[in-house]
Amino acid sequence: MNIKFGSFDSICQTAALIVCPLVGTEGNREPSCYSRNVSLGGTLIFQPSTCFVHIAAVMVAAMMINLVTTKYIAQTRLEMLVFLYLYAIIEFMAIFLDSGIIHTAGSAYMGLAALYTSLVAAAYCCLLLNGSGGFEIANYGPLVPLKRLSLGCLVVFSITLFISTATFKSSAGLSASKPIGLWIIHFLWPLFTVVSTVVIQLYLTITFVHDKWLTGCVLLGAFFFAAAQVLLFAFSVEICNSISHYIDGLFFFTLCMLLSVMMVYKYWDSMVKEDLEFSVGQKRNPWQVPEAELQASEVAQDNSYPDSLDITDQRDRHLALSSSSSSSVEDYGQDNGYRSVLARYPLIDSERHKRLPPIPSSPRHSSHSGDQ
Q1: DSSP conformation class of 45
Q2: Which of 21, 42, 80, 194 could anchor a disulfide with 104, C-beta 3.0 to 4.6 Å?
């Protein structure tokens, strides 16, 4: 494929992009090889295999959104939700645009294609702002990072929407035959944002965090993104011809982009920490203690019980002796006194109680004995 700056002709002959029916010169707007169509209820469905991946991507995005929502005290939770919502909306719109349910010759397709392109550009802006801010730097409490993120995405969305609409309509000095601005938005802007984000996060994880798993998430996300571009723009025709037109490069592009977004979520999930001990959606109960720690705690408690429970034992014994002068200390200890203590302190060892020093009789008990 011969890529020329500002031209979609050679690109659209290889890859079935959503903007291809609206830009470029006539005769160069369709790929030389594309996946087979299917008829569903009298309607031709283009890219059926890719549509299944779009549907799966929407479902996976919904799951990730739910997981992020449960971490309601996690840092940058709202920023991550903005990115995932943008991705879910993009994949949902791609179902109707890639499948041809909305006809390419209609005005609705032009408007939705411009909206789709603007959302994609805003999603890359969201990724860049999240990455440059650092997932650990911006706290959840202040809304300043969220406002800055929303403002940046809104600015990119508005500029892209204007450029896309003007290019499709060949107005405001822009032309559909020479869509230089749209070409920059489609190719240079994603490349700039992704490379910048990867470099920033690698620097963060290697220099400060020192976590190999986080570095692996960043590298895997970058790998899937690069693989998506190569499979779509370099090997789409070869894939289509070798698999008898069942799937093409767009299928693998959508799948790899889904995996890349999942790596972004995994990186965020591994990076952020929740400050609340009663966290929602945590698999581990914050009160659960490992067995080794529990045994060590019981040993420490056993060593400290004779001193800490001495006063309580004396009080219970004195009360029993005062109520019944004829009962001995030993009988009382077996029947009443230690039983109440054991009920309150179940970790007390009964064998240790037998070794406790005897408690002297209370003055009240002694006076009663003298009177008798």
Answers
A1: E
A2: 21
Sign of CA dihedral 174, 180, 186, 189: negative
Let me know if 255 is exposed, middle or buried by CB neighbors in 10 A (0-12, 13-18, 19+): buried
* CB contact at 8 A, 253 and 232: yes
Domains of the chain, first to last: 9-271 (1.20.1070.10), 291-371 (no CATH)
Residues 6+ apart with CB under 8 A from 239: 231, 247, 248, 249, 252
| Residue-wise pLDDT tens digits, 183-231 | 999 999 999 999 999 999 999 889 888 888 899 999 999 999 999 999 9
Distances (CA, A) of 353 to 14, 129, 304, 306, 356: 85, 65, 13, 9, 5
Q: Is 343 helix (H, G, I), strand (E, B) or coil?
A: helix
Q: Please state, in angstroms and rounded to a whole number, the distance separating the CA atoms of residues 206 and 20.
A: 41
pLDDT > 80? residue 301: no
Q: Among residues 117, 57, 66, 55, which one has the least CA distance to residue 87?
A: 57
| Res 367: pLDDT | 47
- Nearest CA among 169, 177, 61 for reference residue 123: 61
Whether the pLDDT of residue 181 is over 90: the answer is yes
What is the DSSP track for 158-200? Answer: HHHHHHHHHHHHT-TT--SSS-HHHHIIIIIHHHHHHHHHHHH
pLDDT per position as a tens digit, 313-329: 555 555 555 554 444 44
Q: In the block, which residue shows the tokens 């494929």?
A: 1
Q: Assign residue 24 a region: left if phi > 0, alpha if psi is -120 to 50, beta otherwise?
A: left
Residue that the structure tokens 């299944």 belong to? 52
Q: pTM of the entire structure?
A: 0.72
Residue 39, φ and ψ in degrees, nearest 5: -105, 125
Q: How far is CA 45 from CA 39, 153, 241, 252, in A?
A: 6, 32, 20, 18
What are the structure tokens assigned to 231, written together?
A: 């499979």
